[in-house]
Amino acid sequence: MPVETKTKIHEDSKKLVYQDSDVKKAMDLIRDHGYVTREDFKQMADEDWAEGFEQKIEAAFLKIDGEDPYIYFEQFDFKGGDIDSIIFDMDQVGKRENALKLLAEAIHQVAY
Q1: Burial group, residue 47, by CB count within 10 angstroms (0-12, 13-18, 19+)
Q2: How many CB atoms lie within 10 A of CB 64?
Q3: Is 76 helix (H, G, I), strand (E, B) or coil?
């Protein structure tokens, strides 16, 4: 079995847990300033967790009448080789470049 297949099987079997209170907190943060990072949720250091968290947040917003933010998950590379995630409302943050700047400031990294 190729290494990539073993890795994929391992990733698929990872149990990802999301607390309703974390989803609510993320929604409040997104309403307030448009985004969340690992500074808000340490679990976002795990790409799989962060991507799933974005889906939970988006699903929760869809249940609320009158709220329809454009929730987006993105990963960015930083100088030194670090890669980090941000979940943001495209309507508030604007373009991806703005999200990169916000993430860099939040996690104290230097963006390319």
Answers
A1: middle
A2: 10
A3: strand
Q: What is the pTM of this model?
A: 0.85
Listing DSSP states for 23-52 in one string gives HHHHHHHHHHHSEE-TTT-GGGGSHHHHHH
Are the beta carbons of 48 and 41 closer than 8 angstroms? no
Phi/psi at 66 (5° precision): 85, -5
Reading the block at residue 78, the tokens are 């930083």
Tell me how far apart the alpha carbons of residues 3 and 38 are, in angstroms, rounded to a whole number: 29
Tokens of 99: 């999200």
Q: Which residue type sits at 104?
A: A
pLDDT tens column, 96-112 = 999 999 999 999 999 87
What does the DSSP 8-state code read for residue 81? S
Bridge partners of 86?
74
